[in-house]
Amino acid sequence: RNIGNSFRPSLGSSVAHARASGAMGAAAAGCLEGLAPGPPMPKTITLKYFPMAGRAEPIRLALTLGGLQFFDQRIPGQDWTDKYKPSMPYGQLPVLVVDGKTICQTKAILRYVGKLAKYNKSPLYPKDPVLAAKVDELLDAFDDLWILLAPTFLIKDQYQKEEYRQQLFAPGGVATEKLAIFERTLADSGTGFAVPQAGLSVADLMYFSFLCVIRSGFLEGLGSELLKGYPSISKHKEMVANLPAVKAYYADKKRSNPNDVPNYEVFSPGK
């Protein structure tokens, strides 16, 4: 009898052991991921944009929700072309300056801030690749809506401009089709968030900010009643507006609207 053979593990037991070890390793890695340090926090943050909500508002809210201190530089329109535009990398705003380094483009800035900012201990931009992709999907979808509206700023005749915008959001309008998709996305969410498994994310801040802007009166011809036929969008708007940090931000008008420009009322709860 070969005593050594009696101690030789079978192929099946070896595979089972390997699988068990792999599973324990994955579980341990998952636990350690929660303990892993996040990205380094910058010492100084400056957000450059105009004195209005516009495309910078979801960035402001992400910084606010994350408790990140930042200088909210609101550049007057009359100073933009000659004083500031030549020094901007793409000749556009918003621009974020982080410890002297410049980050441009709204969504790039929003993703970066979302990685720093946490709400209920979770980052506003998910670490999970699939959830991050779903957030990106919605950020890009809002670009599709903005593309429909952007050309209307070039229409010189005020009546034609307002009429064109109203047609976009009329029954059967191209923008109405986009809103129907956003409504369905929220209606199908089991958690109330734009990306259900992600919790509160920068996608929710984009939903809230952009849809508030288009019904704020900033876009002449479109009014605050624009979203009355979209119950899930309206419920989501109220959810974000009532987050304590967001509610406090808009209640402090010296912080949220230091230039006292119109069109900020709709960002508050119940508006």
How big is the Rg? 24 Å
Average pLDDT metric:
89
Please indicate the percent range of residues in DSSP E strands (runs of 2 or more). 5-15%
Q: Considering DSSP H and I runs of 4 or more, what fraction of the residues is helical?
A: 40-55%
Give me the strand/helix succession.
HHEHEHEEHEEHHHHHHH
Oligomer: single chain
Strand order of the largest sheet: 2-1-3-4
Distance between the termini: 87 Å
What structural category arises from helix and sheet content? alpha+beta
Instruction: Please state the overall shape, judged from the principal axes of the Cα atoms.
Output: globular
Task: Please report the total strand number as a whole number.
Answer: 6
Residue runs with pLDDT of under 50 for 5 or more positions: 1-34
Number of helices: 12
Largest beta-sheet characterization:
4 strands, mixed
